[in-house]
Design a protein that fits this description.
The complex is a heterodimer of chains A (255) and B (284). By secondary structure, chain A is an all-alpha fold. Chain A contains nine helices and two strands. Chain A has one domain (2-254). In chain A, strands 1-2 form a two-stranded antiparallel sheet. In chain A, β1 and β2 form a beta hairpin. The two termini of chain A are 24 Å apart. Classes of the chains: A mainly alpha (255), B mainly alpha (284).
């Protein structure tokens, strides 16, 4: 696993991720929601309710960081198996080790699990710090919602890896990349199909969509919270099945 | 001075210093455990990460190295061979058992503290699983403590004074580390005779009992992970009876203390197993 960490330049990526989160938290501590009025960062909606723009800015940045980091770590983890195939030295080194197919595949899967756990932990810590310096109101409600949704969103890494890892480990770098591109194209065609033939009027009312989403979340808060916290179980079951399938075919390949 | 003692003192100085700084700021800004917002409580709970930071800093200062697993390591490895996976599972689900039994004791002594629940039957059924998964997935704070206490302090204490003394002294140190929070009403509230000294003593006793179980699982697997998961699930209040407890009832301190009996019994069992293991080791 350490070899993988070095091969995908893990240290540099960890420093970037940690710095981004630390900067966000530092800025939140310097600019807490309570100073929004002094900074003239308060607005009122049609109903006359006070909206703390400063808090909303930090919530937006937090949501962006969650999405960017999940995407970033996903791309990073996708290089796990690529690195073995692309670098002849690593490939030779790996083949010289007394490692069974089981252990080799397991190391990749454990790496992804650890990366997901660390990412959930970091984003949760960031969420706690942001929430502590946010004034009660819409900003705080949104942060609370993000804290709940951060688990299923980050767990997507596990789901994506369940498809990606078998592709790269079993098919190799080139075929793996081809299959990945084919799957992404298929996904893109589905999206285009939906855009062309389905009712997407809600997209033109983005603001209303967000409000509707938030209202839906508030209405089913208990159920969504339960589903969010329990989603890693489903993800891990799929991840485990993917691992067993990969081990089975890898062992057959080697035989 | 013995080198191990020196290292331990550096660790304790850093761990207490950093955590108490956070706790003291919490106290001097006029916060109490029951009077603060959940967000502020979560923020101060990040103080649980300080033993982990202290562990890393101490290793850096003393030049002990950062070995991940094996002897004199940070105990970060995960080895599931030789039925060790059972210890992992046990560590995750044991808090559900002793917390529920503890609440059953409260229910037997003080049935008026319980009433109708506001959540659906489905939530009631799924709640223990929810608490377990919530605890394991969001175990970073508990990991922070266990990485310090079980990953660094306990091996050093055992080396210095042997198993039985280490368990008791380790528990007292751990309990005293929580003292500023106990003074703000953490765990036992503020409305009891002998506040806050009785609460601090009770916290030390609870830490000895829980610490024994956590030390057992950590030493048995040579990893801090099962201890971290167990600590996290323990903090997630996994007893389903919590959902039936009335929020406005003030339980007397002695009732709450009695709810710790199941944990104490498990602690005694683990203490016996630890001593048995140590004696077997000495004989070998």
């Amino acid at each position: 696993m350490y070899k993988d960490f070095v091969a995908i330049k893990g240290k540099r990526i960890c420093i970037i991720l940690l710095s981004a989160i630390a900067l966000l938290c530092f800025l939140r501590v310097i600019f807490p929601g309570s100073i929004a009025e002094k900074m003239d960062f308060v607005a009122y909606n049609e109903a006359g309710t006070e909206i703390n723009i400063l808090d909303l800015m930090f919530v937006t940045v937090y949501i962006c960081i969650i999405v960017i980091m999940v995407g970033f770590v996903d791309v990073w983890c996708a290089r796990l198996s690529e690195s073995d195939a692309s670098c002849a030295r690593i490939k030779n080194y790996m083949s010289s080790l007394p490692v069974s197919a089981n252990s080799y595949v397991a190391s990749k899967y454990v790496f992804i699990t650890i990366a997901t756990y660390i990412l959930i932990s970091l984003l949760s810590i960031a969420g706690i710090i942001l929430a502590a310096f946010t004034e009660p109101g819409m900003g705080l409600d949104l942060i609370r919602m993000c804290e709940v949704l951060v688990i299923p969103v980050t767990s997507l890494l596990i789901l994506v890896a369940s498809v990606e890892l078998p592709l790269y480990i079993l098919l190799g770098r080139e075929k793996g990349n081809l299959t990945k591109v084919a799957l992404m194209l298929l996904f893109a065609f589905i999206i285009i199909g939906i855009m062309l033939f389905a009712d997407v009027s809600w997209l033109s009312e983005r603001q209303e969509f967000l409000v509707r989403f938030f209202n839906w979340y508030t209405k089913y808060q208990t159920e969504i919270t339960l589903a969010s916290y329990l989603s890693p179980i489903a993800d891990l079951v799929i991840f485990y099945l993917s691992y067993r399938i990969t081990v089975y075919f890898k062992a057959r390949q080697e035989a | 001075m013995n080198i191990t003692k020196k290292r331990l003192l550096i660790y304790l100085g850093l761990s207490f210093g950093m955590a108490w700084l956070i706790f003291v700021v919490f106290i001097f800004t006029g916060h109490t455990w029951s009077g603060s917002t959940p967000e502020m409580i979560s923020l101060v709970s990040l103080g649980m990460l300080t033993p982990a930071i202290a562990h890393v800093l101490t290793r850096k200062i003393t030049g002990e190295g950062f070995k991940l697993s094996g002897n004199n390591s940070m105990m970060l490895g995960i080895d599931l061979k030789g039925k060790k996976w059972m210890i992992f599972l046990l560590a995750i689900f044991l808090p559900v058992v002793y917390s529920t039994l503890g609440d059953v004791i409260i229910w037997m002594i003080c049935p008026e503290a319980f009433g109708e629940t506001s959540v659906s039957t489905f939530v009631v059924i799924i709640y223990p699983l929810f608490a377990v998964v919530n605890g394991v997935v969001l175990s970073f704070a508990a990991f922070g403590e266990e990485f310090g206490w079980r990953g660094y302090m306990m091996p050093k204490l055992i080396e210095l004074m042997g198993m039985p003394k280490a368990i008791i002294i380790g528990g007292i140190i751990w309990g005293l580390w929580h003292a500023p929070l106990t003074c703000t009403g953490h765990n036992f509230g503020m409305d009891y005779p002998g506040f806050p000294y009785v609460g601090i003593i009770l916290m030390c006793l609870m830490c000895i009992a829980l610490g024994t179980v956590l030390t057992y699982v950590a030493l048995r697997t040579n990893s801090v992970w099962p201890a971290a998961f167990m600590h996290a699930v323990n903090n997630a209040s996994p007893s389903v009876l919590v959902l039936y407890m009335k929020s406005d009832t003030d339980l007397p301190l002695w009732t709450e203390s009695l709810s710790l009996v199941p944990l104490a019994l498990i602690g005694i069992l683990c203490f016996y197993l630890l001593m048995k293991k140590e004696n077997t080791g000495i004989r070998k």
